[in-house]
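Figure 3 (text version): structure tokens given as input.
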């Protein structure tokens, strides 16, 4: 029997759900049933709202997912918002991109994290997950944003166009700065693993993987593979225990 995995976009809009599902579905194991879902009752904004505005809705979605029979959950934001508390609410595994990388990268080598914003939060997360000794560096690849006025207008009138513009900017940043920063991470920081820490970069990292001599970790594929492992392991050992108890 397969496993059911829920990816939660912690936003009040579904404008990225189909895009994320299109990246994940071809990569998921053949026996994985994958669902991507955004949050209800959260302010509808084109970008991630303050965590204080979605934590309660996130936790309720996690609780409901277990009741619906999901075997694992991913909170699809690289800041891992609410992850620690979400884990305490259910008996199924819950993860998020940075935690998945923290448990994956040390087995592969020295890690550089590439972000879009100032780097303190990533250093804090690395310390929290006990991976400072495996962290080669944190580097920034800045991205430009549309003005709030334009973003709000497009979000109301044509969210598909807004999504395309946002993703185009993320891809521009990859080509203009991301490839070079990844090369510098290998050359100057001795990194062997590079994590692009924004879910909007998902599915865009092929040009880097083909030109930079390092393992490139995608921000949504990595947690997908990690949660598949956790969910399958939990299911296997749970089923084995039940079989033993019946004997």
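Below: residues designed for each position.
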């Amino acid at each position: 029997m397969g496993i059911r995995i829920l990816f939660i976009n912690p936003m009040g809009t579904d404008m990225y759900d189909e895009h994320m599902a299109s990246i994940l579905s071809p990569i998921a194991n053949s026996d994985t049933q994958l669902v991507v879902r955004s949050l209800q009752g959260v302010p509808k904004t084109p970008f991630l709202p303050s965590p204080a505005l979605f934590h309660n809705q996130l936790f309720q979605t996690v609780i409901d997912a277990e009741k619906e029979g999901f075997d694992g959950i991913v909170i699809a934001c690289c800041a891992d918002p609410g992850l620690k508390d979400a884990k305490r609410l259910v008996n199924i595994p819950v993860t998020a991109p940075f935690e998945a990388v923290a448990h994956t990268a040390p087995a592969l080598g020295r890690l550089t994290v590439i972000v879009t914003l100032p780097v303190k939060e990533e250093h804090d997360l690395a310390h929290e997950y006990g991976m400072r000794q495996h962290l080669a560096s944190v580097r920034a690849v800045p991205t430009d944003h549309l003005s709030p006025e334009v973003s709000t207008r497009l979000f109301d009138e044509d969210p598909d166009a807004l999504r395309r513009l946002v993703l185009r900017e993320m891809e521009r940043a990859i080509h203009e700065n991301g490839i070079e920063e990844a090369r510098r991470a290998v050359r100057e920081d001795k990194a062997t693993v590079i994590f692009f820490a924004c879910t909007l970069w998902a599915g865009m990292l092929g040009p880097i993987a083909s030109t930079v001599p390092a393992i490139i970790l995608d921000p949504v594929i990595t947690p997908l593979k990690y949660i598949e492992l956790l969910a399958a392991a939990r299911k296997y050992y749970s089923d084995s225990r039940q079989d033993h108890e019946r004997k």
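Residues 106 and 134 are 6 Å apart (CA to CA).
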